[in-house]
Amino acid sequence: MIHKKKWVEYLLEFFMLFLAVFLGFLAENQRENNVEHNREKQYIQSFVEDLDADNDYLQETLISFNNKKKIADSLIMLLGSATKNEGINDIYFYFRNIVRYRPFNVNDRTIVQLRNAGGMRLILNKSVSDSMVSYYRDVDNIKYLDGLLIERISELSNTTDKLLDGIDYGKLTDTTNNVILRIKEPMKLRNTDDETINTAIISVQRIKNISILIKLAVIKLKEKANITRHFILKQYHLEMSDE
Questions:
Q1: What's the rounded Cα separation, in Å, for the pair 182 and 88?
Q2: Which run of H or E residues covers position 96?
Q3: Residue 133 in contact with residue 120, Cβ under 8 Å?
Q4: In this predicted structure, which of 36-45, 184-193, 226-235 has the lowest mean pLDDT?
Q5: pTM
Q6: Distances, alpha carbon 36 to alpha carbons 29, 31, 202, in Å
Q7: Which end of the chain has fewer surrounding CB within 10 Å, N or C?
Q8: Do the Cβ atoms of 222 and 114 come closer than 8 Å?
Q9: CA distances from 219 to 48, 158, 212, 226 (A)
Q10: What is the mean pLDDT of residues 19-45?
Q11: Coil, strand, or helix at residue 70?
Q12: How many helices (H) and strands (E) does the chain have?
């Protein structure tokens, strides 16, 4: 004789099935949360490593811009007395140095990975996410100034054609070691009229002014990098070498 199930048994079976599905859903959801949390922590650790690398790079950048300002000051002074045929060799040397420039570029490994993975949504801590966005917003501002600096250097390079002799200009390059040489033998300027000299001085002044702006921005960015680093370490209870 076939046993006919009571409605209570059907309800119990439904409840057990529902419970199994629900618990499976919770387990899967927890697993996904754990995966997301691990990924978040990996990105955070990677970002802190980027900040550490940036700290060294930004320090080198500050030294570079300090040198560029000194070069600009020396070049402006020498160009001012160029009509007296004084310091010509130094003018060549400083010209070669001031137009040699490596574009500004911090370590953006982590932010690129985050953008490719769908954006900052993977960083669940909003305060940390905001601090990361703020940091790279300042980086973008420096890159904008950096683009202006490269334009000004290009303008100065155009003046070089009128002011400097091509043969003498080529003597300053050590192609083996990629360094700029100081030449002892007398060198000459092609043109020392007021218009050419004034155009060169204005171009150097522009390079100097933008370099100062970038230097100040880099100082602030370096401070923000340190503050952001310590804030993130505290928020995520990470133990990384403190500098």
A1: 11
A2: helix 88-98
A3: yes
A4: 36-45
A5: 0.80
A6: 10, 9, 55
A7: N
A8: no
A9: 18, 31, 11, 11
A10: 63
A11: helix
A12: 6, 2
